[in-house]
Design brief:
With 1166 residues, the protein is of the alpha/beta class. The radius of gyration is 39 Å and the shape is elongated.
Length: 1166
């Protein structure tokens, strides 16, 4: 089957192909089509249309063997038409987005660099501290504060220096304006310095040696070259462990396999084949059976094999570079920022309205006094200025000066503490956003799993079953069939060493260690690592897990006679070693079902009377064969890759006879590969990270829905999701099906979607974007390059600090330093703690402000001198110093697990809940009552007559007002109607210290403030009265909390979008019934009577008329409704789509379930 592909030539088709600025047959845009990890079949067809490797060689002026030659003279232009006649000349054009690199003519490779660029990304300009400060000052709350500060400062200066005052009166009214400006400066500095510091910390985290050397062939010679100097047309060498830096097409290779999980999300190794071999498979129609391709993708890693490839994309035109560039976007406002900006607008309006009302009342009151006496013009002017000052004071008092500082302090404190919990917060606002996350879209490979294939379960002989984690695989072990009784009561990996006889332990050790092509690599974090195929490294890692670490010694001592590398046809690999002069042994491992079929004996371990374990070799009867077969099927049902390990012993005579039959001194594999003795069957998979299951449970408890988004096939994704607790019977869908859903159907599916498999980066981006449109606050976790776009689009992006790629880290808001999904739960707790801290402070601040505004309004209006009961300096202490201390105290409450007992808040949820309004209004009324009673009835209640006592009353009012706020701060520690406000109070040392600082500060002000604060010292009785009245705010707060709140606390509840299939059926049937009813009416001759009956429902008339119009198609409609339904179930509809898709898409995982055992092999050549 030969498939052709054509390239769109309509765009700019009139451009002359002989454009001298591009001597190459290709442009960067055209070559980038070859580096699409999720569309390799299409890329292969495009490569074919370019003339294959030969076409690339000619079009790029290079040589597949000798590489690039020094280019100092202009190259002879060549067009795609000259390479292949399949394309018209219009297809060979210069793209509008070609490189803007300007290299001096005559420099080496100047034309190549001008067209294709260099392998260096343009440096991202980081913001300076001053730019960050300017950005921080754009918040509406701060703008409101700046205006208030300037007005306050201006009026203060006028009052102090523009009016006649008593010499003893201190000139300190301007201090409030300056103090507000200082508070603004602190807020801006703290926020911007924190962002600047985190950015530097992030750069330090990524301080890797990006400039590394790679092996390049130029001028026919192999040489080491800086990765930044690699150009399009270069020929690069590939070796195990290499991190691929640029895109390209394979020229030649042997047993080359790459890990593209960072690019595609699929954990299985990808086999690389030459272009000609891939094209042959495509033409023969077997491409759907093979996952092989010739494309080398930047950002992936070479697992095994060697090869050379032709570079086709570097820098911003490579797959890796394009993703990095796409991440450079502008951050959006967080939900809390949006709510705070909205609050600032409302406060400005309310403060302005209150000031306007006060101005009108005071002006009316002032001008009414003219009927008695009209004062001089200068006096009128002075009095009007005083009235204006009093009204402006209302606005200044209404503005919550400490709110921005509270938010900044809460975020700064949280991010510092989160670092100890292994969360590096790059974007400060991400912390509070995470608190209201409603859904987490998590990548599988490297995030939920370790991205390291490991032996997770297995059997040794017929007697011993083991598992890495009993809880993970417990669902598979609970099987009612007696055929898998061997799987009952499994032991842990650590118990294998003591449970096996020494000879079997040695046999297992040798069979894995010697029969392997993987080798030991450099240690990472103190742990030994192996380089090779994922299956072989998993088996060697298994030996380390069971404390058999003498791998190198075994290999060095083994006398290897002949090695049989892995072969995809026989799906196994083997090795012949010499035990002694008369005994040889053949070790073999491979696809478990093939090893089992070739086995005639099996190991049996029995426990003797003295408690020791002994082993024996017994015949593999049909009954035993069926038992092992059931074990394999059980593992396959869990989507585990099953590997069989066996051996066979030979005498010297047998080996000599086989050598004679073979060619030369070699033994034929077929002569060895039968009559095996089965040692073990093991199940391999990418295991879960520690704590993932518990973390998912806690997320669900907190009302956060966790979804898995992966590039892996459906079976593997569903298995891992079940182990994690993510999949609980909801929807499982594949990326190609999901991306083609109409928006309405996507809206219905999303609430139930739990697993999205075979997803591309675009699918993840669509998912995140659509969830955000539905009002969800979306967090995305990922570690690979393919996760970048979704991480950037999300509200909060989490990347892995250890295993994460540079792309993922650049795109994320928070970096998990320990790569542990469970750290996200801590981030949710801290996020909610920050939101609560802001709400606690807001409740406290607004109580102060509402009381102060009302008190100022009432006292100024009732006063003959339009003077407030609280002086400007007293308000400065209450509004600024108290607020700053309160912000610090309430922002430093540590998080508790109780925070996970409630659902997240939606974006539309009000910043101030009904419970908070209840507390604000209740406490404000209580404080107003106390203060006004003291103001207007204090003299009579306390029996004050003398002027000195009346002056003390003013101080008592101020002192009581302050202590009402101090105790109300403790009152505000608990939200959502929680009664016990003292719970955990001693855990917050800041709160305790600040409480005593405020009490001490108030004591010093009252005793030493005198004229500056317009106070006089109080005696012990008066202090007791003030403190006692202030303390009453705590019991009053408890009483207010006991008052039921009708509206309740607004929490986010995910919309339950149900597809009422029964109703859809009912609608279809009703329509046909109406049609049949009308047809019956016509047949019965009752047409006139039917429509003449005025009592009939008008709706039925409408339906009948509509049915009459459809009469010609009535019969077909009636029959059709019996043959088809409107989506019997959404699941079946999607399954049908999957089946159709899988006939086209070669990477489909359909039919794997039936043939799972037959397609499992050691190198995943399925």
């Amino acid at each position: 089957m030969s498939t052709e592909i054509t390239i769109d030539q309509t765009e700019n088709s009139n451009i002359n192909t002989s454009n001298s600025s591009n001597p190459f047959a290709f442009t960067p845009k055209r070559l980038s089509l070859l580096a699409e990890p999720t569309q390799k079949k299409e890329s292969l067809l495009i490569l074919k249309s370019y003339g294959g490797l030969v076409g690339l060689e000619k079009g790029l002026h290079t040589n597949l063997k000798s590489g690039l030659n020094d280019e100092t003279t202009p190259l002879k232009p060549i067009t795609l038409r000259e390479i292949t006649k399949d394309l018209s000349e219009g297809g060979d054009i210069i793209d509008d987005n070609d490189q803007n690199n300007v290299v001096v003519k005559g420099s080496p490779f100047y034309q190549r660099i001008n067209i294709f660029g260099t392998n260096v990304l343009p440096e991202k300009k980081s913001k300076s501290i001053f730019e960050l400060m300017w950005i921080a000052m754009q918040e509406k709350v701060l703008i409101l504060l700046i205006i208030a500060a300037i007005v306050s400062l201006g009026l203060g200066l006028y009052e102090d220096f523009g009016t006649n005052q008593a010499p003893t009166q201190p000139k300190i009214r301007w201090v409030e304006g300056v103090a507000i400006l200082i508070a603004i400066l602190i807020v801006v500095l703290v926020g911007s310095l924190n962002d600047w510091q985190k950015e530097r910390q992030f750069k330090k985290l990524n301080a890797k040696k990006e400039d590394r050397n790679v092996k390049v062939t130029r001028n026919g010679k192999e040489t080491l070259l800086s990765v930044h100097d690699v150009l399009v047309g270069d020929v690069l060498n590939l070796e195990p462990g290499d991190i691929i830096a640029v895109d390209g097409v394979l020229i030649s290779g042997h047993n080359l396999r790459c890990d593209e999980s960072a690019a595609s999300g699929e954990s299985d190794a990808v086999r690389k084949m030459k272009y000609e071999d891939c094209l042959r498979e495509l033409d023969e129609g077997v491409a759907h059976k093979s996952k092989a391709d010739p494309f080398i993708i930047s950002g992936s890693k070479v697992l095994e094999g060697v090869g050379t490839y032709l570079v086709t994309g570097v820098g911003v035109n490579s797959f890796y570079g394009k993703i990095l560039i796409s991440l450079r976007t502008v951050a959006e406002d967080t939900p809390l920022q949006e709510k705070l900006n909205d609050l600032a607008e409302k406060i400005a309006k309310l403060g302005g309205a209150a000031a306007l009302l006060m101005l009108i009342v005071l002006l009316i009151k002032y001008f009414v006094s003219f009927r008695i006496r009209v004062p001089p013009v200068t006096e009128i002017f002075d009095n009007l200025i005083k009235i204006i000052i009093s009204t402006v004071t209302i606005i200044v008092v209404a503005v919550p000066e400490g709110l921005p500082l509270a938010v900044t302090l809460a975020l700064a404190y949280a991010t510092t503490r989160m670092l100890k919990d292994n969360n590096l917060v790059r974007v400060l606002s991400a912390c509070e956003t995470m608190g209201n996350a409603t859904t987490i879209c998590s990548d599988k490979t490297g995030t939920l799993t370790q991205n390291k294939m490991s032996v997770v379960t297995g059997i040794i002989g017929l007697s011993i079953s083991f598992v890495r984690d009993v809880e993970t695989h417990s669902f598979a072990l609970k099987n009612e069939s007696n055929d898998v009784a061997i799987l009952e009561n499994p032991i842990s990996l650590q118990q294998i060493n003591s449970a096996l006889p020494q000879d079997i332990l040695q046999l297992l050790n040798e069979s894995i260690a010697i029969n392997s092509t993987a080798f030991e690599g450099e240690a990472e974090n103190g742990k030994r690592t192996f380089v090779g195929s994922k299956t072989e490294t998993a088996l060697l890692g298994f030996l380390l897990d069971i404390n058999l670490d003498n791998i190198k010694t075994l290999r060095d001592n083994a006398q290897i006679i002949q090695l049989f590398p892995f072969n995809s046809e026989r799906k196994s690999m083997g090795i012949v070693i010499k035990i002694n002069d008369s005994k040889w042994r053949f070790f073999v491992k491979g696809a478990s079902e093939i090893i089992l079929k070739k086995s005639e004996k099996i190991i049996k371990i029995v426990k003797s009377e003295d408690g020791t374990n002994t082993s024996s070799v017994i015949d593999l009867t049909q009954d035993y064969f069926n038992k092992v077969q059931n074990v394999i099927e059980n593992y396959a049902g869990q989507s585990l890759r099953t590997i069989g390990i066996a051996y066979r012993d030979f005498e010297q005579g047998q080996i000599e006879e086989m050598t004679k039959k073979g060619s030369g001194d070699e033994i034929s594999y077929e002569d060895l590969f039968y009559k095996l003795t089965l040692i073990s069957i093991v199940g391999i998979e990418d295991p879960l990270r520690e704590g993932v299951r518990e973390a998912v449970k806690m997320c669900v408890k907190a009302g956060v829905k966790v979804r898995m988004v992966t590039g892996d096939n459906v079976l593997t994704a569903k298995s891992i999701a079940t182990q994690c607790g993510i999949y609980t019977g909801g929807e499982v869908m594949e990326g190609p099906v999901f991306r083609d859903l109409p928006p309405e159907q996507m809206d219905r599916i999303l609430p139930k979607l739990q697993v999205l498999a075979r997803s591309s980066p675009e699918d993840k981006r669509i998912l995140v974007g659509h969830l955000r449109k539905l009002g969800e606050v979306v967090a995305v976790t990922g570690d690979g390059t393919n996760d970048g776009p979704a991480l950037k689009l999300s509200d909060v992006g989490f990347s892995m600090g250890i295993a994460g790629t540079e792309v993922a880290k650049e795109a994320s808001s928070i970096i998990l330093m320990d790569d542990n999904f469970s750290s996200i739960v801590k981030a949710i707790m801290w996020g909610r703690n920050v939101n609560d801290a802001v709400k606690k402070f807001l409740q406290f601040q607004l109580t102060v402000n509402v009381t102060a505004v009302m008190l100022t309004f009432i006292s100024a209006v009732s006063s003959n001198e339009q003077k407030s009961v609280l002086s400007a300096v007293q308000l400065l202490w209450v509004n600024l110093i108290m607020d700053t201390f309160a912000a610090l105290a309430l922002a430093t409450d540590p998080p508790t697990l109780d925070l996970l007992d409630r659902k997240p808040e939606s974006r539309s949820a009000p910043l101030i809940s009904a419970d908070m309004w209840k507390m604000i209004i209740g406490e404000s009324i209580f404080q107003l009552v106390i203060t006004l009673v003291l103001l207007y009835a204090g003299n009579s209640i306390l029996g004050y007559d003398t002027p000195e006592e009346q002056l003390q009353l003013q101080t008592v009012i101020f002192n009581t007002f302050v202590f009402l706020q101090i105790f109300n701060e403790i009152n505000c520690r608990r939200l959502y109607g929680k009664i016990n406000v003292m719970k955990g109070v001693l855990r917050n040392k800041f709160l305790v210290i600040i409480f005593f600082i405020m009490v001490l500060g108030q004591f010093l002000i009252v005793h030493f403030g005198k004229a500056a604060f317009q106070v006089t010292p109080l005696n012990i009785t008066q202090w007791v009265i003030c403190v006692a009245l202030g303390f009453l705010s705590i019991p009053v707060g408890i009483i207010i909390r006991l008052i039921p709140t009708d509206l309740g606390h607004t929490t986010y509840t995910p919309p339950e979008v149900r597809v009422d299939l029964e109703k859809e059926w009912s609608d279809a049937i009703t329509q046909v019934q109406n049609q049949l009813y009308f047809f019956k009416t016509l047949r019965g001759g009752r047409f006139r009577a039917h429509f003449g009956d005025r009592k009939e429902n008008s709706e039925k008339h409408r339906k009948a008329i509509a049915a009459a119009a459809m009469l010609p198609s009535l019969i077909s409609a009636s029959v059709g409704v019996q043959m088809t339904s409107r989506e019997p179930t959404i699941q079946k509809k999607l399954q049908l789509d999957n089946d159709n898709d899988e006939e086209i898409n070669p990477s489909s995982s359909k039919n794997q379930n039936d043939a799972n055992v037959d397609t499992i092999d050691i190198e995943n050549h399925s």
